[in-house]
Every structure is written in C-alpha cells, then in structure tokens.
Amino acid sequence: MENKFNVIKEGKVLVDHGPITMVIEARLKGQPYTHAAIAGAYEAIELLDKLSSQLYVAKKYIKDIAFDNRHEYPLVLKKMIESVELLEEPDFTPMASVAGTFADMVKAKVFEAGADYALVNNGGDISYQIPDTEEHMRIGVISDLSNSRPTHVIKINANSGIKGACTSGFGGRSLTKGVASSVTVLAASGSYADAAATSIANATDCQDPSIIRCLAEELDYSTDIRGQLVTKHIGDMEKCNMETAVRNGLKRAKALYDKKMILGAVIFLKNYMAVYPEEPTDFTISAIY
Fold it and tell me: What is the mean pLDDT of each run of 10 residues along the chain (289 residues)?
C-alpha cells in the first residue's frame, strides 16, 4: 500500500495509483493533520477497487443503465449515476462525473477522520470544505488546458454553498466535443461540477473550417464514448464563430444554473472569457499578474 501514496509534507498526501493522481490536504484548527489526509488516501484506493468491479456499468450510456440493479452498485457508482442523470443527456456515461465524485467521497473521509479543513484535488477536479471561521476559498484556474499554468484565481465566499470546482475542455485529460480552451464549473459538490463541466465544454461549440473532429476511439481506444465525434484539432477560428461557441456554452450554463445543478461557470476560448452568472455574488474571478 505504501507505494500507492506518499506524504509530500505534513498534512498533504499524494495518491498516485492507476488512473488516480490526487492531492489530499487536511488541517485541524489551522495545523496540518496528516492522519486525516492518509485516511483519505486509503479511501481513494478503496473507491477505485470498488468501481473497477463495476467499470462495465460506469461506461454504459446513462439511458442504458437499468434501475432494477442499482441497489447492488457501490455508493461511488450510485453517486456518479445520480449526477449524470441530472444533465438529461442520454449519450453521457457515469464516467463524466468520476473524478469529482471520488474527490467528494475522499473529502468526506478526511472529515470523518477528524479534520476541519479538507481540499482534495483529483487531477484538477476539486472538492473542499473549510471551517466556519474562514471567509473565502481561493482556487487557481487554468484558462488553457494545453498549458498547465494557472492564469486566474476564483475567490469563493465561504457561505455560498459551493464545495466543488471542476474543469473540462479541449486539451484536458478527457475528450471533448466542444472547442473551449477550458470550462470551470462551481457547484455544491465535485460530482455535480464534474458532470456539468463536461456538458458545458461540449456545448461550447460551433462550426468552423479549422476544427477537425474524429471518432473518440481514434484518440482513446478505451474511451467510454466510442462511436461519438470529438474534437481532434482547433486551428485559427473565425472571431464570429468563437463568439457563437461561447454563447452556446453560456446557454448550457444557464440551463444547469436554473435547475440548480451548478452555482457558477467560467468559460475560456482563446482570448475570450465569459462568466455565468454575469454578475456573480458568490464568487469573483481575477487574472494572475
């Protein structure tokens, strides 16, 4: 087990196991709390083992997952299914929320182990909880997933109800049908944020001669969306088409916001940035200079 995670400093653990690359940070009364972070690491590994036995279900389209057998699924898979169902997009699979759901459940374990602060970063998909004494949470945002350097900071009010922040888009770990450089979604859970980020990134799309698409399995043989077209390359897009893509992404963000699945979204497409709601009260975003 010891080679599956490492304590990188007091109160912070790196889990590097299979598809998981996760950083878990835990504190208690402002001090690093390594014991709780380690408890979270064991939870992440156990969750992966449980999901692996049901991976064939997790890769099914949501419309094809039977209701009758759901009581037999592990809790992590049930939560993934519940989040993706809220999208009402039948060609999604539960895998659209896997990273955020893992982050949520690991965070819960960290708190169960006694921490009063937990931040779980699962490859850029974040779930967190902070003490009542803190007023804000700050999260770095990458505006172009082809470049891993954070370019912006989102400052989130502690009483906003936001507990998850997840990112999707072209050039990220997962495939996308859209052209967004990145989409970061804020929600009450990492599971909701993860599924919604995938959906909004897909919707941030348009027709442009510079966009090349291909079947998902051409880019990832083990993909859960075989047979679906995804974005392979984005060239120099026309300005009017980029504006159309951003509008489409905002339309999808509004739909998910109106149904209370998300609490905010930030869309980047090359030099464009759009925020929903347009004048948010629960968070602010600023560039890093």
Answer: 81 94 97 98 96 94 83 93 96 97 98 97 96 92 91 96 97 93 98 98 97 96 95 97 98 98 98 96 93
Helix (H, G, I), strand (E, B) or coil at 141: strand
Gap between the Cα atoms of 214 and 202, Å rounded: 14
Helices 190-203 and 75-85, axial angle in degrees (round to 10): 40
> Which single residue is written with the structure tokens 């968070």?
283
Class of domain 1-134: alpha beta
**191 phi, psi to nearest 5 deg:** -65, -45
- Reduced to 3 states, what is the DSSP secondary structure of residue 53? coil
Domain ranges of the chain: 1-134, 135-289
158 DSSP 8-state letter: G
Handedness of CA 128, 165, 257, 151 (dihedral sign): positive
For residue 65 the two structure tokens come to 């997952």
